[in-house]
Design goal:
- There is one protein chain.
- With 314 residues, this protein is α/β, with parallel strands linked by helices.
- It has an eight-stranded parallel beta sheet with strand order 7-6-5-4-3-2-1-8.
- α3 packs across α12 and α6 runs parallel beside α8.
- The longest helix is centred in the C-terminal third of the chain and has 18 residues.
């Protein structure tokens, strides 16, 4: 049994999974931005990043029409002659899943992801959170993005946190699960690493850990992404179980996305350079990727307004 004191519990957990050299992390991620990717390699990376996008709308004013527009953008991001791939998924609230399923139909590889478990706070009874997951899956969700119980983690009640994740895994059935740590509320790299291990120990091969809801002041950064992918690497080396990763929130430019892909290649290797093992949670990123792909193909930048807005209201 872990000590009841949250500080004692965390110390024991840190002894188990290891701590983070914060200075070393920041030095390492700073070097990723110095890498130069040009011509064919850059175009390949831009298209790969586009294929990894979870195109997202999570607003109170979401409507069936807006979701249908999002789905159309997901299936055909731009002129087919440009060669921009379909995105990995559309991500919507549970009430919008049935509308996304209707818009996407069955003849597409684009998946439907739904945030659940009282996103973004997670502050609802477990029974309510599980009912939301089951309803989203029943309406056609292929993937569920859940939030962990940060209060339980910070209080040292790790068993409570893990039991809730296990319950969501069961409620998901065949749907893929993405476990959101909400890194800004975990506050330290040591806590992020520890929470990553707790989550990975109770999810399945191919499920994800995810940085953020995108609803707090600090979302995905190269630093917290690095802490999490190093945890994934270490867990894989220990167990042989491959866990996927999703940074979310704040990744808006193609340049940022390419730097995140460099981090993946240098830390986890080519086996994670696909949308089954790595995603970007974003709404603004896709258009900049398209803009850069067009520039690589034609030599000229198009103005941002040239591209359709995935979040246009109806």
């Amino acid at each position: 049994m872990l000590a009841r004191s949250p500080h004692g519990a965390l110390r024991r957990l840190f002894d188990d999974v290891g701590t983070v050299d914060a200075v070393g992390i920041e030095e390492r991620v700073a070097k990723y931005g110095t890498r130069s990717i040009k011509k064919a390699s850059k175009l390949w990376g831009l298209k790969l990043a586009a294929s990894m996008v979870d195109l997202t709308t999570l607003e109170g004013k979401d409507t069936p029409g807006k979701v249908a527009s999002l789905c159309q953008k997901a299936m055909c991001p731009h002129d087919p002659e440009l060669g921009v791939p379909q995105v990995a998924a559309v991500c919507v609230y549970p009430a919008m899943v049935k509308h996304a399923r209707k818009a996407l139909g069955s003849a597409t590889a684009v998946r439907i992801a739904s945030v659940a478990t009282a996103f973004p706070s997670g502050q609802a009874p477990l029974k309510t959170r599980l009912a939301e997951v089951k309803a989203a899956v029943a309406d056609g969700a292929d993937e569920i993005d859940m939030v962990i119980n940060r209060g339980a983690f910070l209080s040292g009640e790790f068993g409570v946190m893990q039991d809730e994740i296990r319950a969501v895994v069961e409620a998901c059935g065949q749907a893929t699960l993405k476990v959101i740590l909400e890194v800004s509320e975990l506050e330290t790299f040591d806590n992020i690493r520890a929470a990553s291990f707790l989550a990975m120990r109770v999810i399945r091969e191919g499920d994800f850990i995810k940085t953020s809801t995108g609803k707090t002041s600090l979302n995905a950064t190269l630093g917290n992404n690095q802490v999490m992918i190093e945890a994934i690497r270490d867990y894989y080396l220990d167990t042989g179980v491959s866990i996927a990763m999703k940074p979310a929130g704040g990744i808006r430019t193609a340049k940022q996305a390419l730097t995140f892909l460099i981090a993946i290649k240098e830390t986890l290797g080519d086996a994670w350079l696909n949308n089954a093992r790595y995603r970007f949670g974003a709404s603004a990123l896709l258009n900049d990727l398209i803009r850069q792909i067009e520039k690589e193909n034609t030599g000229a930048y198009q103005a941002p307004y040239y591209f359709s807005e995935a979040t246009e209201s109806y």
